[in-house]
Amino acid sequence: MKKSTKLAFTFVTLASLVGTAAYAEQDKGGDMRDGSRWRLQKAVRDSDGGINFDQFSEAMNPQLKKILADNGGKVTVEQLAAALEKARFERMAKRMIERYDSKGEGVLTQEDVTAHQKKMFALLDKNNDGKIGKNELPKRGDRHHRQSEVE
What we know:
This protein is mostly helical and 151 residues long. Helices cover 66% and strands 0% of the residues. The chain has 2 domains: 3-75, no CATH class; 76-151, no CATH class.
């Protein structure tokens, strides 16, 4: 079997596994977390009514395609896990800096963290006595609502 055929087969297999996991997640009431369904729908909308295999392949999972390209077309479990973990933590770090960076400098300082914590404390200290009492703690499920008020 030619190297390009093996690579295409490997990619389709990996994409199918990712798609199967996403479909299973969707069946549990979730949605496709990797965004491939959205990218596929966008590709079809942007086309003249249909997409060919190359367009389909491009839309499915560009992150996986990049990881494979960065590793010479083959990736081990360890390499894939490390790349996915790195990308996940980079997204988390970016969101944290966006949330805390009060000056919009793209960096996180102790000053930013303290200012954010003071805002959160003030929101929780409903009676303004300088303490957070048990009755002022957020109820289960309130966390997301309170955090969005702070931001």
